[in-house]
Amino acid sequence: MYCFFLLKVIYRLCVVACLSIGLSQIAFAMGDPKSMNTDYDQSHAINKVQKARERALKLANGGDAGLVEAIAVDQEQLEFLKRRGIEELAYGNDSLVDRELDLHRDLAGFYARLHNKERALDELERMEMRADVPLIARYVRSAPEFAFLRSEPRFLAFLARLESPTVVWHGTAFATGYKANLTVEERVAGLSDFWARVRSGFVHFDNVPNLDWNQKYLEFLGRVVKSESTIEYYDTLMQFAPLLRDGHTNIYPPKELFSHFYTSPPIRTDLIEGKVIVTAVLDKSLKAKIRKGDEILAIDGKEVHQYANERVLPYVSSSTPQDADVRLYSYQLLHGDAKQPVSLTIRTPGGSSSELLLPRDGYLPSDGLRLATFETKRLAHNIIYLSLDEFEDDEGVKEFEKILPDIMRSDGLILDLRQNGGGNTKFGYDILSYLTDQPMPLEYSTYRIDDGYMQHIAGDEGFFYKRPVNLEKAEHYSRKEHFSGKVAVLIGPKTFSAAEDFLVSFDTLKRGIMVGAASGGSTGQPIFISLPGGGTARICVKDDRYPDGRKFVGVGIKPQVEVSETVADYRVGKDAVIETAVERLSQD
Which end of the chain is more exposed for a tag (fewer CB within 10 A), N or C? Predict the structure, then answer.
């Protein structure tokens, strides 16, 4: 017993010692400033090397003598990058790694122009110490100075190694085309690829702390093996991604199956005060059957909430409860097979009920009624209103700039983002830059770096994060004029993704008030992968937060002024959110 106790004590001491060593290794690998010993910071080191590279490239235009001098300049910079303090800086800054790659590439080109084959190949191969990148291979293949190497076995082997990531990540074995029945091997491969990519790069496991991802993989493995068709297979896969509870992590079927999964009658619905209300009828042929303001009581004979929870919820990838409600009752409620009509039980505002059998398909495109994406109007108290329903393109920026003269003469501005599902964050920043002369505060973004080496030194445990280099500093816009008046931004659960990026900067700047309800609570950068049979998936691999580190993914951004919509207001055309915003902006 005593010996066993002593062994346990010795073991624990060893573990503590190893952990201490491991943590110091982790700090070094992640670029802990305490491990640095240099007079340079990252930006100064990058600028020094870049200026020297530019000088070398100019020298290289001076014939053989200039090439020799250029080689000396670049080699001096490589020695600089190998200095202990500078080399450590590179662990915290990808741009320094890129500069080393650039130097080796430049040197390879200089030696090639001198027809020094062996030294050119040496420099090309040294690039592999930092990265195997297909983009570099494409450049080297097309660069004229390497033309005389294109039949060299060593050169061809170098290109093949640089192109190997394409085979690993995007090989055609998994990305097979559509067919009605996939092999069991293809079905298992698709599930396994998604599971593995999530496990290695997904950034929001903290939002699902009780999810045993490996156990769920085993459960779904049995289900996909039993799938008898591609339709059944994707029906199963599309229930796998929602377990992660992330609005930017989804599995999509092949386009050949869109009509089976995604067809719905041209009407829109919303959950208001717990009731499913028709908020738009987008086809003239339906207007005699169903109207705005009608309530949906049941679908296909099931009470509407029961139907949503049983038939729709398993396919909903959402980050927050409010995000789930939007997807359940607004976006996905009536989705189904184009060949199958949907039965609705509706109740009019007057209280009468009726049964409708609506085809999901067969509506003429010419009958579709478009909803305005950008609406502008002047409200009471000289307040300008602009709805920005998407950031997919720069149309919203153009609309804002078109009315900017009116905005400059107004006493207040309301930007309505309640229907904005996102797009490109840049377009939101473009608009916000007209409302402030301050640099644009950017989100605090990280991605996972717990690769095989990090797992080894951490004892196969832990997630480790790093900041993207290009997102470390606030972005500054130069505008000739800025609107300095009062601003209100209207938000709700459909405010999502890039629209929330806008809110983070707006809120951090303290530029105005947000009015409405909490946003959807999901943004980030997804990667896209191809699946067997023509389907696709995306996985969120970037975690975005407020600049001070506050989370909003999985929570939502809350307004300073909360306003709840009511069915009664909707039916009489009253927008309490806009009215509240006008009231607040008109106050001194």
Answer: C
147: CB partners within 8 A, 6+ apart: none
| Tens digits of residue pLDDT in 206-265 | 999 999 999 999 999 999 999 989 999 999 999 999 999 999 999 999 999 999 999 999
Pairing between strand 412-416 and 383-387? parallel
**Residue 335 near residue 264, CB atoms below 8 Å:** yes
Q: Quote the CA–CA distance of 388 and 374 in Å, as a whole number.
A: 5
Give the 3-state secondary structure of residue 13.
helix
d(CA 64, CA 75): 17
- Residue 303 in tokens: 């009470």
Half-sphere exposure of 498 (CA within 13 A, CB side): 20
Residues 413, 386 contacting (CB under 8 angstroms): yes
Q: Which H helix or E strand runs over 414?
A: strand 412-416
Cβ proximity of 30 and 450 under 8 Å: no
Q: What is the pTM of this model?
A: 0.85
- The CATH number assigned to the domain with range 32-167 reads 1.25.40
Rounded Cα distance, 554 and 230, in Å: 32
Query: pLDDT-derived band of residue 558, with 50, 70 and 90 as boundaries?
Result: very high
- Reported as half-sphere exposure (CB side, CA atoms, 13 A), residue 46 has a value of 13
Separation of alpha carbons 13 and 17, rounded Å? 6
Task: Label each residue of 156-191 as H, E or C.
Answer: HHHHHHHCHHHHHHHCCCCCCCCCCCCCHHHHHHHH
Q: Which CATH architecture has domain 376-586?
A: Alpha-Beta Complex (3.90)
- Find the radius of gyration of the CA atoms of the chain: 29
CA distance 413 to 381: 11
Nearest CA-CA partner of 70 in 82, 83, 52: 52
3 state SS of 77: helix
Count other Cβ atoms within 10 Å, centred on residue 411.
Answer: 12
Q: CB neighbours of 444 closer than 8 A, spacing ≥ 6?
A: 467, 544, 545, 546, 547, 548, 549
Note whether 373 and 390 are within 8 A (CB): yes
Location of structure tokens 């993914």 = 553
Q: List phi, psi (to 5°) of 130.
A: -110, -35
SS3 562: strand
Specify the long-range contacts of residues 351-360, CB closer than 8 Å, at least 24 apart: 353/297, 356/289, 356/290, 358/265, 358/267, 358/286, 358/289, 358/290, 359/265, 360/263, 360/264, 360/265, 360/334, 360/336
Phi and psi dihedrals of 361, rounded to 5?
Answer: -130, 175
In this predicted model, what pLDDT tens digit does every residue of 467-485 receive, in sequence order? 886 555 677 788 999 999 9
Calculate the CA 394 to chain-centre distance.
Answer: 19
Q: CA separation (Å) from 382 to 266, 413, 491, 541, 586?
A: 37, 9, 21, 44, 9
* Domain 260-367 in this protein, CATH class: mainly beta
